[in-house]
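Give me the fold.
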Amino acid sequence: MKDTKLFFTRLPKALQIAFRKAPVFVVLVLLALFAMTACKKKSPTVTAVPRCTEENVPEHCDCVDGKLQCERTLLLFANFDGRAASDLSTYGHELTASNVAFPAEPSGRGAVSSYSGQNSYIKVPNVDTLNPTKQLTIAAWIRPHSAGVNSGHEQRIIQRDEHTWGFFMYAGEDQITFYTDTDAVRDDQSWIQRKAKITLDTKYTHVVGVFDGRRKIMKLYIDGELVPEPNDAEQPPRNTLNTPDRDMFIGANHFMNGQATAPFIGDLDEVRIYSRALTQLEIKAIMKLSDPNVRTGNQE
């Protein structure tokens, strides 16, 4: 009884009068309204969203400006830290390695993929999820060996198809070439290229190729910096990349007489393929996630 009186005295006077004069159902309605008003006055609980760092990013995500990005536009991601070829993107494409070694990277944090040029490659099945049409970004840490440059043949580093897109090096050149093909004719004259010098043997270079069909432009970035292009540089004639009909290769071209052609001699790490055009800010962010040249604990 005392508890009931105590509860009654704590109510606002208007409710106390209603209890004495109003029918029971009216009292119940007033109590419900009172409870709702009391709840609204309480401060909402605010849960702090932790900012990501380079150390706590899941393998298939990126940390960009402190925000975790786990997106479906990351079509393929292979960092080889498990000493094997595997796709850590949400798509989990099957990667088949042949004569590829996975030595420790100079940073000491993980592993890289190493290609000898002797039928050495990683094959990815021809699937629609690896066929972006309007936008594309290819990124990788690349360390070509001078033996490959002097081998007398082209080196296909990452290739979706000869008439689609990829990275390669011309025979005898210490330059990386990013190419795309949007011409329905699909001949060797329909490529659009961007080229830049790359260091051989001694260090890894972060190379990124970007295609934006919406604006009909393509760009090449070396270690996060945009490679200047001449004013008369060719731009893609169409806004849609060609669709390939072959498997994708890393470290070589397609098969001919049972052998992978145009083999790459060197090392690769952190291979990423996106179905969108990354900005320079985003490119620098993914570059900082894992630099195979930097020893653990020495990063800025």
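The chain has five helices and 19 strands.
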